[in-house]
Amino acid sequence: MSEIPDDTSGRPTGAPDAAVAPPPATGLALPFDHLPLPAAMLDTLRQLDYRATTPIQAASLPLALAGHDLIAQAKTGSGKTAAFGLPLLARLDVRKLAVQAMVLCPTRELADQVTQEIRRLARFEANIKVLALCGGTPMRPQRDSLEHGAHVVVGTPGRIMDHLERGSLKLDALNTLVLDEADRMLDMGFHDDIAFVAGRCPSKRQTLLFSATYPEGIARLAARFLRQPQEVKLPEQHAHDKIRQRFYEIEHPARLQAVAKLLRHYRPVSTLAFCNTRQQCRDLVELLRAQGFAALALNGEMEQRERDQVLIQFANRSCSVLVATDVAARGLDIAQLEAVINVDVTPDPEIHIHRIGRTGRGEDDGWALNLCSSADKRRVASIAQRMGFEPEWHALDELEEDASEPLQAPMTTLLILGGRKDKIRPADVLGALTGEAGFSREQVGKITVTDQNTYVAVERTIAREAVRRLSAGKLKGKKVKVRALEG
Ligand code: ADP
Ligand code: MG
Predict the structure, then answer these.
(1) Could you give the C-alpha distances from 129 to 37, 115, 183, 457, in angstroms and in order?
(2) CA 72 – ligand 2 centroid, Å
(3) Assuming Cys at both sites, which of 71, 119, 133, 422 could form a disulfide with 155, CB separation 3.0 to 4.6 Å?
C-alpha cells in the first residue's frame, strides 16, 4: 500500500509547536489546564477527578494535540485511553455527524472499556456519539446505529473491516486513527486487517499508535501507517517494587500439583495462572477443582458468551483461579489480582513482563510466582537480565500449607435468566435481594446485566438461601429462574 504521501499536508512534523510545552522527558504529571484543551473538557476532567496527567499522558498529549503522529509505549493501566481520547475529542466537529475518529482494539472487552472511557471524557459535549463495533454480536443493530450516525467508532479490526466491505461504515470524514494495544493486535494476527482498514482511511489524518510493549513488528507497522511519528516511551519504573517475584524449581510432571501448593500457602483471593498450552490449562483446572479450588479455564476457543461468563465470575470474586494461555488472556484487564502464577516460564521476557504486570496494580502489592524446571533456568536468566533484577529462588518444601481450611472464593455467582431485554437493571436485583429476600447490602457483590442474563455475586455462605428466596419471589413483577454457577 502506498497510501501515505510525502509530507505535503502542512501538518507539523518537526520540532513541537513553540506554543506547546515540550513533553517532560521524565513524563512527570502535568496539570491538565497547562494543555490546549477546551474549557468545557477541563471541567469534565475535574468532575472525573482527573487532577493531573499520568506520565504517559504528560509525554504524549502535547505532541498529539499539536497534530503529530505518535508511537506511545507504556504499561497497562497507565492511562493510555485518555492520551488518545482527549486529542481525538478535542478535534471533533460535533455538528458534523460523521465518523471523524476510529479506534482499533484487539478484543471486544478492550473495545468496550475504551468506548466507556471515551464516553466519560466526552461528557463535556451533550451530543457526541461513540459507537462500539465488535464481533461476537449481530451486525444488524450496529448497521442501524451507524445509519443514525456516530462521531467516534471503537472496534475490533475484523468487524470494522466487515462494515467497510458492506458499505455500512464510511470514513471520508475521518481525521484520527488510533491503534490501541497494537502489540496485542499483531500477536492476534490482525496485521492484514489493520492494513485493510488503514487503507480505507483518508491519507491526510493523524495516526496514534499505543502499545504496552515494543516488539519489532510495531516498528514495521508504524513505518507503514504513521508519518514521521514522534516516539514516547516510558520505562516501567515502579512495577518491580510492587510485584514480588519468586522462582521455584520443579521438574515438569510435578508442577501442576505445585500450583495447588502455592495457592494453599499464599492464599490469594484472585489468581491468574498462565500455561503455555491449552492441554495444560485443562489438566490444571481439573486438578485444582478436584482439590476443591474454584478454578475456571479461559480458552481461546470459547464462545463469546461463555468467555463473558467466566470473566464475570472471576471479576466478581466467585472464581479464585483463572487458568489461561497468553492468547486466551489477551486484553484481560482485572483490578485486584493478588497473584500471577507462571506454570511455565515463557521464553519471551516481554511476555513475562506483560503477564506479571497484571498484578501489583494500584495500591496493592502482587505476587508473581514462577515454576520452572532446571531446563527453564536460561529463560529466567534472560528475564532477570531484561528486567534488571536478581532472581529469588525458593524451595517448594519451605511452603507451609494451611490445609485446615480450603481456599474458597468469597463469593458465588447467581445466574438469573433474564437481562436487559427484560428491562432488568442492577437496582432491581439489589432491591429484590435486600428487600423482600431480606439480605443486607454488604452480602451482595457485583451485579452484571447482559442482554439475556443477569449475574449477581453474593457471599458464598448465603448463596443457596439467596437462590431459594429469589426463586420464590419476583423480579420486575415476574417469576424468574435462578441458579448458582459453579465457581
Ligand atoms: P491503559 O490503557 O494504559 O491500560 P487506561 O486508559 O485504561 O489505561 O486507564 C486506567 C485507569 O486510570 C482508568 O480507570 C482511567 O479512568 C484512569 N485514569 C486515566 N488517566 C487518569 C488521570 N489523569 N487521573 C486519574 N485517573 C486516570
Ligand atoms: Mg488501554
Answers:
(1) 19, 10, 28, 32
(2) 12
(3) 133
